[in-house]
Amino acid sequence: MKVLVIGSGGREHALVWKIAQSKKVKKIFCAPGNPGMILGSDLKKSQGLTPVIENIPIQVRELDKLLQFAKKEKIDLTVVGQENPLISGIADLFVRHNLPVIGPTRKAARIEGSKVFAKKLMEKYGIPTAKFEVFDDYNKAIRYAKKLKYPQVVKADGQCLGKGVAVCDNYTQAEIFLKKLLKEKTFGAAGEKVIIEECLQGQEISYMVATDGYNFVSLLPSQDHKRVFDNDCGPNTGGMGAYAPVPFVNKELIKVIEDTIVRPTLKAMRKEGNLYEGILYPGLILTKEGPKVLEYNCRFGDPETQPLMRLLKTDIIDIFEAIINKSLKNLKVEWHKGFAVCVVLTAKGYPGEYEKGKEICRLKQFGESDKVRVFQAGTERIEGKTVGSGGRILGVTASGVSLKEAIHNTYESIGENGIHFSGMHYRKDIGMKGLMND
């Protein structure tokens, strides 16, 4: 089997790493990929399991080029890591040419591409979420915001690279962000509509399922850490780290999530003519009234995928084939026991303007052992050296019998005596929320 993985970040590296373990796969193409993907399969070639992995210089938004490449190479399966190609309709394009793809259609991907679409869907079908109002006029939004009790959350309708949401502690903050979106057009068309919603309180978790539109299998619940500094301080990022599974999400709570959120969402999408196939990832908050949806994503989470791939025992190709063949009802997904933790190492200045070109030290020594796996995200190779090229550079990921052990194993590999680079920043508290009840 030939597999094409679309994307270049840590999530896609983790997927490539897991796909490479399948006996069904002989070649993996990564578009555009990163240096870690072609260097990073730690499977022993003596086992005969390591497929050929090749990066190809096609960007995720170049849909026609991706299609032509897939047709030319007779790709058997395409896995779309990033949301932008899905929102732009790559799944529709590939399906029209009889190319199997993991990811929802353009219409179905609106569940992530438009927060207004998602909120109205939840309101119509009684899926638990925060109370909200939608605005496209600055003056009306301001008048409404003046009446509210704070904190409140203001969200841009479209994709803003993680910068389109603001938790506002007072009216002044809401006014500033609304002006940024609706008057200054900072995010262009993505901010032409805004949502103002109540600020819910509780622990946030990531809950991903693989679905064929009718049936689904749940992946392990995980927890992301979006703020740039410890104790959830500072601006939002694409994610500073994650761990799985979440100790306080028990079987009873999983059943509630599946019965009140996952099944109703899939049913609602079918009723609206948007059959949803692929990975559905609702970001949830566990309130006193029960779990509620903060937002939907139409693909695997990043960095949640990194610890999930460390723990997944089932051949991931079996999951993908079950989605395409609509046989998920008969699939049992198995997981390795224990926990996994991913700590993201970022460039100095991230999530704002950040430094580039800093050499990463001790990457091979600490990043390719049985205990620790480093998934590369924003990296490139220059003169034989791996250097940082993005904001989120690496995802140091390790497992352990207990969450405490997994945290220890991860952080043990980071710092002056481990993996490091000039200006490196990372949170020191990834996974600590999971230890609160210990």
TrEMBL record:
Record keyword Ligase present: yes
NCBIfam families to which the protein is assigned, alphabetical: purD
Family, per entry: Belongs to the GARS family.
Catalytic activities: 5-phospho-beta-D-ribosylamine + glycine + ATP = N(1)-(5-phospho-beta-D-ribosyl)glycinamide + ADP + phosphate + H(+)
One Gene Ontology term from the biological process aspect of the record: purine nucleobase biosynthetic process
Pfam assignment, any one: GARS_A
Name the UniProt record assigns to this protein: Phosphoribosylamine--glycine ligase
ATP-grasp domain sequence ranges: 119-325
E.C. code: 6.3.4.13
Top-rank taxon: Bacteria
HAMAP family from the UniProt entry: GARS
